[in-house]
Amino acid sequence: MRRIATVLAALLLASTPTAAHAAPTGLTSTEVSFTGNDGVVLHGTVLTAASGGAARRPGIVMLEGAGNRGRSYLRPEAEAYARHGVVTLIYDKRTEGYSAVHRDFSLLADDALAGLRLLRDRPDVDPSHLGLWALSEGAWVAPLAANRSADVRFLITVGAVGITPAAQTAWAYGTYLRHAGVRGALPRTMRSTVVRTTIDLGLFAESDFDPVPAWQRVRQPVLAQWGRLDRDAVPGLSSRLIGGALDRGGNTSHTIRIVAGTNHNLHRTAADGFDRLPDLPADYADFETAWIADPARTAPSASPADEPAPPVFAAGDHAWVSSGVVLALLVAFAGFLVVGRRSRLGRPARWLAVLTPVTLVATYLYLMFLLVVAAKVTGPVVLGRPLPWLLLQLLAVATVAAAVAVATTWRRHRDLATAGRIRLGLLTATGALFAVWAVQWGLLLP
């Protein structure tokens, strides 16, 4: 569930801790700090042209995408805008109240507005040309901020997503795995079972956030941009959804722009959009700064690429998987401990007791690795499968074979003592439960 920030305390602006200094690029860099509504102090940098004169200039606050890379991640974009005469604030995203498993878009929106107020009070900023620039996850946050404050005079987004974070994440997994040459069960497992399980376990914050209602309430001028080679934001569908929401809300001052030859963050690409080069196009920020001065300005726009439809999720229907896996582990180890070495079923039983937890743990470790790298690093691909996944599938087949051997021999030896039959029966049930789990997670599928 989304946690909505309820703290209504007035924002307290802190004074800048260091003096401004001229950067070697011809820009002036000023370190600043400001305080969010919940008292968290945020630190940032304001970049301006070193020879800007006395006239007031437009200002933007830049919101980064998912994660917390720090203000340096957006420094190239900020410098490009500053060279075009825009006073630009970049800041370190909060760490208190924001992590890989906990985030609150409403709270992040309040942080952005706190930064905007800092710029508004600067003597070199024109409050009538003050807005937000947002990348990826930041573009889920920016419309919320725009709906709360008249200080936001315009929005510029890059790689905005028009669907829920869960659906977008699953779509991107499929996109990157297909690009790596991965086919078969693993893309389905990542797009469906893995995403649903993280939701059910409460590890996917804001998974069901629907951005469309917030966009429908935005009244400020909007420049929404996507790279033609964006492999993360479902650009075709997102551009249609966001543009449609703005139309339905009566916003007549919005521009939908698809930028040819660029990736998710509008950078140059040498890998058809599947890379993150630091290089900006030579004309970066030319159109954007002209648009700030005249939001009615338009430019030629590329067509978005064809893309598969993202999945739709309903949380809660896979929660049984986790409890089933835990049960399998407990029964497997219990079977290993209770079956004696001299039992006529000893060897198959021991193999099953060992293979079951090894396969389970190894599978979770590899899938966790794919989660951490957002499925962008798979390892060598053999027969349409990453080598680690292929080995896991072989382990799963061996585990099921051991389970069949245990079950077959158990049925043949009805002269076992009752206690022994119960113990080995539990281990046989473990094999059956493992097989169900392995099918669910794609290990026994092509």
CATH superfamily membership of the largest domain: Alpha/Beta hydrolase fold, catalytic domain
| Low-confidence blocks of residues | 1-22
Number of strands: 11
Q: Any idea what the radius of gyration is? A: 27 Å
Distance between the termini: 35 Å
Largest sheet: 9 strands, mixed
Which architecture of the largest domain does the CATH hierarchy give at level 2? 3-Layer(aba) Sandwich
Name the strands of the widest sheet in spatial order: 1-2-3-5-4-6-7-8-9
CATH topology of the largest domain: Rossmann fold
Give me a quick take on this structure.
The chain has helices spanning 75-83, 105-120, 138-148, 165-179, 185-200, 212-216, 235-248, 286-293, 319-338, 346-372, 387-412, 418-440; strands spanning 21-22, 27-35, 41-49, 57-63, 87-91, 125-135, 154-158, 222-227, 254-259, 381-382, 385-386.
Q: Can you describe this structure?
A:
The chain has a nine-stranded mixed beta sheet, with helices on both faces. The chain has twelve helices and eleven strands. Helix 9 (319-338) packs antiparallel against helix 10 (346-372), helix 10 runs antiparallel to helix 11 and helix 11 (387-412) packs antiparallel against helix 12. Helix content is 43%, strand content 14%. Residues 1-22 have low confidence and may be disordered. By secondary structure, it is α/β, with parallel strands linked by helices. The protein folds into two domains: 21-163 and 209-293, 3-Layer(aba) Sandwich (Rossmann fold); 319-440, no CATH class. The radius of gyration is 27 Å and the shape is elongated. The chain has helices spanning 75-83, 105-120, 138-148, 165-179, 185-200, 212-216, 235-248, 286-293, 319-338, 346-372, 387-412, 418-440; strands spanning 21-22, 27-35, 41-49, 57-63, 87-91, 125-135, 154-158, 222-227, 254-259, 381-382, 385-386.
